[in-house]
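User: Sequence in, structure out. Go.
Assistant: Echoing your sequence, followed by the structure tokens.
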Amino acid sequence: MPTLKHPDLVLICADQLRADHLSCYGGHVPTPHLDALAARGVRFADCHVPSPTCTPCRASFLSGCFPAAVRARMVGCVVGDDPRFLPHVLHAAGYHTASIGKIHFAPQSDEAERVALALARDGHYHGLREVDLVNGHGADCHGPGYTPWRDAIRAAQPESCRERRPLPGVPRSHVYPDPAAAHAGNYLVERARAFFARDHATPSTLLLSFHDPHLPFTVPAPWDTHFAPADMPQRLRAEDCSGLTPDQLAALDGRWERDRMIGTPPFPYRTLDDAAWRQAAAIYAGMVAQLDAQVGAVLAALEASGRAERTVVAFIADHGEHLGDHGLCGKGFHFNEVTRVPCLLAGPGVPSGHVVDDPCSLVDLAPSLYELAGIEPPAAIHGGSWLPALRGTGPLPRDACLIETDDDLGALRLRSLISADWRLTVTAGAAYGELYARRDDPRET
């Protein structure tokens, strides 16, 4: 597709989404809308995050720098402003910059206050001139615009409300208590539709960040029963893994004061059987399917607005989910199910129906968007553009992906290099590490 000078940009981010669940990645969850996006653009088959937790990864893909360079050490830390953040660069080039949904550049409990203060004082939040913040997960999502919108739907549909209670035997789960219409993802769809319908005088950039399929395992009807637990793939049990490190075994047994990476109370995951994990996997699959439907509604709204032909769309996730593989839940360790995420790119200047099989990193996303927008990237960033490789004029920016973890909750320091053949991980201060042959042992047993 020919390049368009200063196209609109829409960056859609999912939270805690494994690549191997999407049907366009060979997964068992039908994702027709994401499949269609992949078909009209580029699918990066082996894309990895620069850090396997929310805040560091988001700071990285929005800056083109590795997390340590923008002081994004761990999940929920306060990320300082930096002129290298993509919204700053795009605004300087004449773009209107907006965000709907999650940002997570501060603890979620007080980020709304920080956003309001920054907008009033500086006119922007990390370069974003318009922010409709929605934080939290599951039925605990909240935001200045979303909370009253949800409460109005609750009041109008009391018959659709359910008792919130844990799902029997399923870790970190609850029955979704609100009407399906009140789900935060549907709010994002509605607000994105309104954004596209506006008459923008300048090129626009929208960061649209969904909350699913992040823990807790919960999804409204009909998605909560859409998949049968018996149909879920067999997980990789801890007892079938020969190389678990002392840190991973401690997390598996719940022997930490706080759960590594996510700061939640520890859980003895080893006590969960296959039946419990299959139930969790069925709920997670429902969350993925609902997300695909919501992304489909966003893309339909973009098409209806008449702006689709001049818009570059990227779809990514900030990390994956263990989901019982290696016996674990959540994210944080550098296993493939956590570091490998979907990455789709389509629009003006992007070839259609193309698949990149070589490893790539989300640290290269921002530089690639700059090239598509005809904008010079800022100095002193680590990322490079994918476009030369996509156009056949040069290689990918790197042949191995660096992954960082600097987590103060668990005092865990990890660095990994991932190539097409190997994954090497070192732990600071430890005599042990990890080395996996990716082609021979893709599940990292």
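User: And one key feature?
Assistant: The chain has a mean pLDDT of 95.
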